[in-house]
Amino acid sequence: MKIISIGLFIVSIVGLSVFAMPAQAEGQKGVIIIYSSRYGSTAQTAEWIAEGMEGKAVAVSVKDAGDLGGYGKVILGSGIYFDQLHSDMIAFLETRREEVSNKLLAVFVVCGTPPDQAQGYLDMFAEKCKTKPLLMRAFNGWTKKELLSPEDYKSLEEYYKSVKEPFENYDNTDRAKCLEFGKEILEKIRDVK
Fold first, then answer.
1. H/E element, 91
2. Structural domain total, the chain
3. Angle in degrees, 0-180, between the axes of helices 41-52 and 175-192, rounded to the nearest 10
4. Does 102 reside within a domain?
5. Which of 1, 54, 117, 143 has its CA 20 to 30 A from that of 11?
């Protein structure tokens, strides 16, 4: 009786894991969102974009982006730090640019600049990709002082002092805008087919 119960338990777990996987038609390749995040707001943004894509995408850190052969489309996301892409994203593009160039669907950045004023960061990202993505979007992130490295803390403290603003924690992430971008990406995929 114990063996049957254990067997049913294992079958149930395996069955549930199959339902949790993104649905793909036979021969169709999925979408991967590869992001680089220093303090978590870009990772959160990537997860929300994937959620907006209704299970058609998986979000992974650039450090965990393994074989991309199973993915037909790639979305890249990076935080902006001191007017530059995250160093891990730059390194990824230097080594794997050719691999993603014909799969690149969209790029996004997460920064402190208002999204409507962040076009320069998006253009810089597209230039580093050497491919014009179909979609580009900027989002705001957060600053959580307790997470900052001593160097970043000092730099931000000096910056806020120079502009005579208080150096405080903030969270300007916007789940609804991320979900909306995910839905827009889904529509673009359908249009491209």
1. helix 87-101
2. 1
3. 50
4. yes
5. 54
In a domain, 18, yes or no: no
Asked whether residue 117 is assigned to any structural domain, the reply reads: yes
DSSP SS3 for 30: strand
Pairing relationship of beta strands 170-171 and 71-81 according to DSSP bridges: unpaired
Q: 115 is written with which tokens?
A: 């999204």
Beta bridge partners of 58: 32
Q: Show pLDDT as tens, one digit a residue, over the chain (193 residues).
A: 444 444 433 334 333 333 333 444 334 579 999 999 999 999 999 999 999 999 899 999 999 999 999 999 999 999 999 899 999 999 999 999 999 989 999 999 999 899 999 999 999 999 999 988 999 999 999 999 999 999 999 999 999 999 999 999 999 999 999 999 999 999 988 876 5
Cβ-contact 140, 155 below 8 angstroms: no
Q: What is the CATH number of the domain that holds 66?
A: 3.40.50.360
**Do 43 and 35 touch, CB atoms closer than 8 A?**
yes
CB-based contacts of 51: which residues, under 8 Å, 6+ apart?
Answer: 178, 179, 182
In a domain, 4, yes or no: no
Distances, alpha carbon 189 to alpha carbons 44, 57, 73, 183, 193, in Å: 22, 12, 9, 10, 6
- CA–CA distance, 58 with 78 (Å, rounded to integer): 16
